[in-house]
Design goal:
mainly beta; 5-stranded mixed β-sheet; 2% helix; globular
């Protein structure tokens, strides 16, 4: 998920120029609500490094009428941050560099409010946004953009800081089902083939959730149990409290006490609750599954703590506190996992920490020096960084004006290089390069190398006929790659590009 800055930010005027604004005063927030927000991406993963599970639809009720619409082979992107939840695509044969005018655009569709990226499976792209008083879920043909079905659910969500009222959480696809998680906490399961409702749970009401600063942001994850009926679980951050837990001031979340539903697991077939766990409040960080010492564990970075959980039962094995002291600070980027180590990075206070996981316990490897923001090389706001060959690539910085795209060392945290001017950008790793979408709508291809920031291609997408700019800020959803197509979202528009045919 994306979390808004509380400090100075770069604002974009109607002419496309960036100018500096000081403070997130309410009048500024209202004026620029469509140019700023929290796209909390993050962004949900079915599996992490070292853990695998079925990616394709099984013979389930949700898939009995479902055929693939793809015209070529490739890999689906049915989860937040891709099939393994780490922002990496297995695509090979990427055609770069691009022409000076940029890559060829296949199609675009208009969007309403919201900040989450699409999910793509079986040749279908699922797009989640808001139109007036409804959250809208659309299924479009992934290669043409043609509408297949559309469903709506009423919402009354109002952001307490005046930001966009659309969904922040990316939908996920599994077994022919679409799982969506709205800004107010409506968790819904629909059939991918036609959009018909399978079940829904209003988590906000069911678990007495005191609304978070920017609504619900973490995407769901799926876990296949290994005991009993071997069913699949939809696991979400809920962060419920006691029925009388709401403070008089809705912004005083420090006064809210969590109550036994930090995370909740539901049966994917019928929506029945399987387990609930933790008194932690919810964050905007999508949980991640990974195998440690031969056991599958769920990593869930909640509002205050990282939890290590047995996904079979919900039992919490260990926890690690990592959050800034500031009331309005947020946790939004997902954990990054390599072997038996976990990297956490936030931008409001302590920065980054590298943890080992040994015998179901967290062991601290290194952390950023205290009170030394200028020396901390990786302070992620919401965009989850990508790991490749011992290097971590991503955006450091709290505000658009001071953000840098950087390459850092996984083991030591050392800064290898930095590139300014991209704002709080998101990226994916494809065929040895990084496809980077800047906060302002610029698209780049950067070689994944620790030696230097080698930019292979850089462009702003424009309509070939009207010459109008296609992507307007804020562009906070991470890029999506499926079957050789790139899907990127800006304010009010989704754009599809063919990466294999330029």
């Amino acid at each position: 998920m994306v979390a808004p800055s509380i400090d100075a930010v770069w604002l974009v005027d109607l002419a496309g120029r960036r100018r500096r604004g000081k403070g997130l005063q309410m009048n500024v927030l209202r004026i620029f609500a469509k140019c700023l927000i929290s796209t909390f991406i993050v962004y949900g993963s079915i599996c992490g490094n070292g853990f695998s599970q079925d990616r394709d639809a099984d013979s389930k009720p949700g898939t009995d009428e479902l055929n693939s619409l793809w015209s070529r082979p490739g890999e689906d992107w049915s989860l937040f941050l891709g099939p393994t939840g780490n922002g990496r695509s297995e695509l090979r044969g990427l055609v770069v560099p691009w022409a000076e005018t940029g890559p060829e655009v296949c199609w675009t569709i208009e969007l309403g409010e919201g900040y989450c990226g699409p999910s793509v499976s079986k040749g279908r792209a699922i797009v989640f946004d808001r139109i007036a008083g409804d959250e809208r879920l659309r299924c479009v043909h992934a290669e043409t953009g043609e509408l297949i079905w559309e469903e709506r659910s009423p919402t009354g969500y109002v952001d307490m800081f005046g930001y966009d009222g659309g969904p922040r959480s990316s939908p996920i696809l599994c077994d022919g089902y679409v799982i969506s998680y709205g800004a107010e906490g409506l968790l819904a399961c629909r059939r991918l083939v036609d959009g018909s409702l399978q079940w829904k749970v209003e988590t906000g009401k069911e678990f007495h959730v005191v609304p978070n600063f920017f609504g619900v942001g973490a995407s769901p994850v799926i876990y296949k149990t290994t005991s009993g009926s071997q069913r699949k679980l939809v696991i979400v951050q809920v962060g419920g409290s006691a029925s009388d837990g709401s403070p008089a001031d809705p912004q005083r979340l420090d006064l809210v006490k969590g109550f036994d539903s930090g995370l909740v697991a539901f049966d994917i077939e019928n929506g029945s609750e399987v387990w609930r766990t933790s008194n932690e409040l919810a964050s905007y960080s999508t949980p991640l599954l990974n195998t440690f010492d031969g056991e599958v564990r769920l990593l869930a970075w909640m509002r205050d703590r990282l939890l290590l959980i047995d996904p079979e039962s919900g039992a919490v094995k260990d926890s690690f506190f990592w959050r800034a002291k500031e009331l309005f600070s947020v946790v939004a980027a997902s954990p990054v996992v390599h072997a038996a180590e976990v990297l956490l990075s936030e931008t409001y206070g302590p920065g980054s920490v590298l943890l080992g996981v040994e015998n179901d316990l967290f062991v601290e490897r290194r952390r950023d020096p205290p009170r030394s923001r200028h020396r901390n090389s990786l302070r992620c706001h919401w965009a989850t960084p990508v790991l490749h060959d011992g290097c971590v690539y991503g955006t450091t910085g709290r505000n658009a004006g001071d953000a840098l795209f950087v390459c850092t060392d996984w083991r030591t945290g050392e800064l290898h290089w930095k590139e300014p001017g991209l704002g709080r950008a998101g990226c994916v790793l494809v065929d040895g390069v990084l496809i980077v979408l800047s906060e302002f709508g610029e698209l780049l291809v950067i070689k994944a190398s620790k030696k230097t920031c080698e930019i292979i291609s850089r462009c702003e997408l424009v309509d070939r006929q009207t010459r109008d700019t296609l992507l307007s800020p804020p562009c906070w959803a991470s890029p999506v790659v499926a079957h050789g197509y790139l899907y990127i979202r800006g304010a009010g528009k989704l754009v599809c590009i063919d990466l294999m045919n330029q």
